[in-house]
Design a protein that fits this description.
Blueprint: H1 2-15, H2 22-25, H3 32-37, E1 39-43, H4 58-64, H5 68-77, H6 98-107, E2 112-118, H7 145-156, E3 161-167, H8 174-181, H9 188-205, E4 209-213, H10 220-223, H11 225-234, E5 243-244, E6 276-281, H12 301-313, E7 316-322, H13 332-348, E8 369-374, E9 377-382, E10 390-393, E11 396-406, E12 420-423, E13 426-430, E14 443-452
Parallel strand pairs: 1-2, 1-7, 2-3, 3-4, 4-5, 6-7
Antiparallel strand pairs: 8-9, 9-14, 10-13, 11-14, 12-13
Helix pairs in contact: 4-5, 6-7, 6-13
Bound molecules: 2-acetamido-2-deoxy-beta-D-glucopyranose (2 copies).
One 2-acetamido-2-deoxy-beta-D-glucopyranose binds next to loops.
């Protein structure tokens, strides 16, 4: 008996083991929480939040590419000889209230959060032992920013999953440059910096998303990505729940990983056969905070909800990026967008969370109508109020059981039902009086008893 059960448990263990090959790693099922969550918050925060000019590529644009706009900015505003590292003491974060951030993220309806633990500049937002004097405990905030946010999210809003972004490469790290000059036949940077840091991050903060980046110059072989992922999936403290993106070495993007990000602001507009994520920014031009951004540089809420509808209908998740300031504030316009998103989801979230793509993604007759489904219900997210209050749906065939309702609407008797007429190739739904509708943007119809065209 003992031998039999030992044998069975060995079998179970060996079956759970992933090999460091893409074939094996890609066979791991996607942990369920991620697809159900649909909406996450991305946070780009670091030393670039101090100049907060141009983009988070500040340093590279200034010293790496020598782009004139950045060179001029430095000449006009800083003493000669000022270095990028000189910005770090001004990364003060004195207004950083992690509980407040957790509360805003929660109010946005997001179900996961991804913080940049280290961007391409190499500055770590946690006290990394491998980032001597270039981390948030030694310089600047004098705090473990990753730990403080993780703690706030987990204690205040435990239903929100905590994740971390990590840039594999660092623009100006001498050991990375040395590996690069050896055409990546040496990988001292990976063994001395990247892997110790990734292991430290996973063991210390147990992130349930690892959003890797900065991989593109070198192959997965150099980064030892497959070995890391095998450990992550087999033996790490988050082996059962962690999800990872697709940036693990040249050519991995859009081909390997729990979900594909393909390129920044990826929004293909058609159904994909692998889980994917639209990582996009509220500031159209930058991931990091820009002081010079004006109101029109930010997505309107209408634009944001359009991204959401298109993304979810095609099987993606939406990762909405905010760029906090050097002193730890979420800019008011970003907070407002997040709260608008949350108000919309409070009313219409049924069409989003836990939904799956339907037979059709957008309507065949009327532009700007995006579908999702759940059980035997089909949801139509309608981005524009229809002309003359009548919406034509061409992707829908009625049956004798067809019933149509609107989530944000109730008549005097508490009914959300809408009238519709049957057309030769679809249905025409009559919208209610706008004054009775409790949502200003993107109205959601719940369709019951219909067939896809
Ligand atoms: C999180 O959001 C939900 C839904 O809006 C709300 O009921 C709850 O009170 C919020 N929790 C916190 C800690 O803000
Ligand atoms: C449906 O979406 C696709 C992809 O965005 C677009 O090319 C097509 O025109 C849309 N169809 C309608 C009727 O809007």
């Amino acid at each position: 008996m003992f031998i039999v059960s030992l044998f069975l448990s060995l079998l179970a263990v060996s079956r759970a083991q992933y090999e460091p090959t893409w074939e094996s790693l890609d066979s791991r099922p996607l942990p369920e929480w991620y697809d159900a969550a649909k909406v996450g918050i991305f946070i780009h925060w670091g030393v670039y939040s101090v100049p907060s000019f141009g983009s988070e590529w500040f340093w590279k644009n200034w010293q790496g590419f020598g782009i004139q706009k950045y060179v001029d900015f430095m000449e006009r505003n800083y003493r000669p000889g000022f270095t990028y590292a000189d910005f770090a003491p001004a990364f003060t974060a004195e207004f950083f209230e992690p509980d407040e951030w957790a509360s805003v993220f929660n109010a946005s309806g997001a179900r996961y959060v991804v913080l940049t633990s280290k961007h391409h500049e190499g500055f770590t937002l946690w006290p990394s032992r491998y980032s001597w004097n270039w981390n948030s405990l030694d310089v600047g905030p004098k705090r473990d920013l990753v730990g403080d946010l993780a703690e706030a999210i987990r204690s205040k809003t435990p239903h929100i999953h905590f994740g971390l972004y990590y840039s594999l490469y660092e623009w100006f790290h001498p050991i990375f440059q040395s590996d690069m000059s050896h055409l990546f036949t040496t990988n001292e940077f990976v063994t001395k910096k990247v892997m110790p840091e990734l292991n430290d991050l996973v063991n210390r903060y147990e992130p349930e998303v690892i959003w890797s980046d900065g991989d593109w110059d070198a192959p997965a072989l150099y980064w030892t990505s497959k070995e890391f992922l095998a450990w992550l999936f087999n033996a790490s403290p988050v082996k059962d729940t962690v999800v990872v993106n697709d940036r693990w070495g040249t050519g991995a993007i859009c081909h390997h990983g729990s979900f594909y990000t393909c390129f920044d602001r990826y929004n293909p507009g058609v159904l994909q056969n692998h889980k994917w994520e639209n990582a996009m920014t509220l500031d159209r031009h930058s991931w990091g905070y820009r002081r010079e951004a004006g109101a029109s540089d930010y997505l309107s809420f209408r634009e944001l909800v359009t991204e959401l509808a298109e993304t979810i209908s095609c099987g993606g998740n939406l990762l909405v990026n905010v760029g906090p300031t050097h002193d730890g504030r979420l800019p008011a316009i970003m907070e407002e967008r997040l709260r608008q998103l949350g108000s919309w989801l409070d009313v219409n979230g049924e069409a989003v969370y836990d939904s799956v793509p339907w037979k059709h993604q957008n309507d065949t007759l009327t532009p700007g109508v995006w579908y999702t489904s759940k059980g035997n219900l089909v949801y139509a997210m309608v981005l524009s109020w229809p002309e003359k209050d009548v919406l034509t749906l061409g992707s829908v065939r009625p049956t004798p059981q067809t019933h149509v309702a609107m989530l944000a609407y109730q008549d005097d008797h508490g009914s959300s039902s809408l009238q519709f007429t049957i057309l030769q190739d679809g249905i025409a739904v009559t919208f209610p009086a706008m004054s009775r509708v409790g949502s200003q943007w993107a109205w959601v119809l719940v369709l019951q008893g219909i067939e896809p065209a």
